[in-house]
Amino acid sequence: MTDSLSLLNAEVVACRCCPRLVAWRTQAAREAPARYRGETYWARPLAGFGDPRARLLVVGLAPAAHGGNRTGRMFTGDRSGDWLFRAMHRAGFANSASSVHRDDGLKLRDAYVAAVVRCAPPANRPTTRERDNCLPYLERELRLLKELKAIVALGSFAWDGFLHAASHLGAAVRKPKPRFGHGARATVGRWTLIGSYHPSQQNTFTGKLTEDMLDGVFVQARRLVVDNERARSSQAQG
Fold first, then answer.
1. Peptide bond connecting 176 to the previous residue in cis, omega within 30 degrees of 0
2. Phi/psi of residue 55, each to 5°?
3. How far is the C-alpha of 120 from the C-alpha of 204, rounded, in Å?
4. Adjacency order of strands within the sheet including 49-50
5. Most buried one in 7, 69, 110, 202, CB count within 10 A?
6. Dihedral of the CA atoms 3, 193, 162, 124 (nearest 10)?
7. What is the mean pLDDT of residues 13-33?
8. CA dihedral 86, 110, 121, 73 (to 10 degrees)
9. Do residues 162 and 68 lie in contact, with contact meaning Cβ atoms separated by under 8 Å?
10. Mean pLDDT of all residues in 146-173
11. For residues 159 and 167, what is the distance between their CA atoms, to the nearest angstrom?
């Protein structure tokens, strides 16, 4: 069967491979904090979303229990998403600087957003087995998003998850493996991987990650995709 993003996304949403995560995402919806009480939670796995011709892929850790698990879209309805989409908007990858719910009109331009794990995990800590259960979804996204040039990994878990997925697809990952750091870069197969601290409140409240730092990562990503387009155009003209 020919694979497609729509087929993949339907499979993601129907997934029940990890009993602990199925139980937790449902419990989080049932025991919603007062500010969200009465809302209907998505409480299912989250598919990636964005431009199918994207040259940039942003990879996160997993949905937040009261963010994406509530709203039904990655990095939507929580503080991490506020930081992420403001930066993507400033870099020209999004038509809006906010992401409130999945029908709010947010559109990504030349970018796609996904995660290593597709269900909200307890304490934001998936197990290795849960990661491995989910990795084939990221691998299929990497195959289907044929224009991808740059990957922004939000945090070390996303960095390592991408390296595993790329290796499974046959990309050469040098040894020792590239080390994660904010602004770190590595060439992996046909992609350039860029590291960023995750825009979690733990990092933004403490100043470990500032808006200028996050902007710097997306400026790098924008330059990569623009430079690649210029090189391709020059080759076509030559």
1. yes
2. -105, -10
3. 20
4. 49-50, 111-115, 56-60, 150-154, 191-196, 185-188
5. 69
6. -120
7. 97
8. 80
9. no
10. 97
11. 12
What is the H or E stretch that residue 151 is in?
strand 150-154
- Name the strand (E) or helix (H) holding 162: helix 156-168
Return the residue matching tokens 């937040």. 64
Average pLDDT, the chain: 94
Tell me what pLDDT residue 227 has. Answer: 72
Say if residue 229 is exposed, middle or buried (CB neighbours under 10 Å; 0-12, 13-18, 19+).
Answer: middle
Q: What gap in Å lies between CA 15 and CA 63, rounded to an integer?
A: 15
pLDDT score of 176 more than 60: yes
What domains can be seen in the chain, in order of their start residue?
5-237 (3.40.470.10)
The pLDDT of residue 229 is: 65
pTM: 0.94
Distance CA 70, CA 64 (A): 8
Nearest to 141 by CA among 173, 112, 168: 112
- Count the residues in the chain: 238
pLDDT at 230 over 80: no
